[in-house]
Amino acid sequence: MSEVIVVTSGKGGVGKTTTSAAISTGLAIRGKKTVVVDFDVGLRNLDLIMGCERRVVYDLINVINEEINLQQALIKDKQLPNLFVLPASQTRDKDALKIEGVKAVIEKLKESFDYIICDSPAGIEKGAIAAMRFADQAIVVTNPEISSVRDSDRMIGILASKSERAEEGKAPIKEHLLVTRYHPERVKTGEMLGVTDILEVLSINLLGVIPESKAVLKASNMGIPVTHNKQSDAGQAYMDAVDRLLGETIKPMRFVEAKRKGIFASIYESIAGE
Amino acid sequence: MSIFDIFNFNKQKTSANTARERLRIIVESSANDRKMPKIKELQAEIFNVIAKYYEIPQDDVNIQIDQQNGKTVLELSVNIAEDAKSASII
Ligand SMILES: Nc1ncnc2c1ncn2[C@@H]1O[C@H](COP(=O)(O)OP(=O)(O)OP(=O)(O)O)[C@@H](O)[C@H]1O
Ligand SMILES: [Mg+2]
């Protein structure tokens, strides 16, 4: 049985692409055959975060338009043999995302993958709707910021009404909350919304909390998803989220408490993030 | 040139240097695309010809444009794995 998971948010720049890359890498590390699909047509980024930008000629739109077959458009990850990327087009616009074509591509991917991760563009228009349309599960990425929480709430409403599951009266999309760019210290001093505040508004299952981390910028510079950086806080937090997605429910949340850092912890962190 | 260059700070293999190098390649290749707008089409066509015979993924066909001694050189490399399936369309 394959699962289609959309990574969505409503608000832009909250960490969807970072999360799509990190979660799909984590699933592949756990042995699942995984493909990550970029739905951000016109502004593709996933290829950079996955480090395969030099290898893209064909993309999702070429497959939808049947200019190339799906197998040939998939780009194999450099490190993990069971991880693939389906890039978005850089030149076309979102109108090229014909919904029937998207459906055919997803159906085809289901034949050979355990997990199909869809990286949604920001907003609630065509690209975002196409990305969530055929999802079984959704990861709603939210920053501890009032505008991001409100947009996530809006997105949860859209997931419940605009998906194929909703329209066909099937069991609803399973929704997960992923809080990213979290600063426990700033939450403690009352400068930032805490996880419990967010959960009060968005009462969906908490999949994980990803701390604000230097390792994320380093990962994007290198084109190596942060999950590979096993020393890093963000890498570990993403791996925990992957394990929860795979059904390990008892994992306690890490990186949510402000800690009094000793000098060694600080040095260690700056090395892991470098 | 900044003082950092003199002391070779920028030559270190930092992640920012990797990002800089990746960006340079991206910018260069899109400049080439503009200079030679047909190159993407050519690459696609070459790929399609090969795909008639072998089922290979897109990144196994690589076309690069290089400047060598003032000449523009087109480099084509095709990687056909030993176990590549014969394409079914022919
Ligand atoms: N946990 C984190 N710690 C630090 N920086 C982060 C973290 N998560 C994401 N970022 C940074 O936030 C920025 C936006 O991330 P990303 O591109 O993943 O967001 P997005 O939601 O996909 O954006 P868009 O809506 O434009 O598609 C990037 O610069 C990324 O490096
Ligand atoms: Mg994105």
> Strand count, sense and closure of the main sheet of chain A?
8 strands, mixed
Class inferred from helices and paired strands of chain A: alpha/beta
Strand content of chain B: 15-25%
- The SSE order of chain A reads EHEHHHEEHEHEHHEHHEHHH
**What strand order characterises the main sheet of chain B?**
1-2
Q: Give the largest interface.
A: A-B, 22 and 20 residues
What proportion of the residues of chain A is helical, as a percent range?
A: 40-55%
| Largest sheet data of chain B | 2 strands, antiparallel
What is the count of β-strands of chain A? 8
Low-confidence stretches of chain A: none
What oligomeric state do these chains adopt?
Answer: heterodimer
Number of helices of chain B: 3
Number of helices of chain A: 13
Labels describing this entry:
heterodimer, A: 274 residues, alpha/beta, eight-stranded mixed beta sheet, 13 helices, 8 strands, globular, B: 90 residues, alpha+beta, two-stranded antiparallel ribbon, binds adenosine-5'-triphosphate, binds magnesium ion
What does it look like?
The complex is a heterodimer of chains A (274) and B (90). Chain A contains 13 helices and eight strands. With 274 residues, chain A is an alpha/beta fold. The model of chain A has no long low-confidence stretch (mean pLDDT 93). In chain A, α1 crosses α12. The termini of chain A are far apart. With 90 residues, chain B is α+β, with helices and mostly antiparallel strands. Helix content of chain B is 44%, strand content 18%. Chain B has three helices and two strands; from the N terminus they run αααββ. In chain B, strands 1-2 form a two-stranded antiparallel sheet. The longest helix of chain B has 21 residues, at 15-35. The model of chain B has no long low-confidence stretch (mean pLDDT 78). The interface between A and B is medium-sized, with 22 and 20 residues. The complex binds adenosine-5'-triphosphate and magnesium ion. Adenosine-5'-triphosphate binds next to α1, β7 and α11 of chain A.
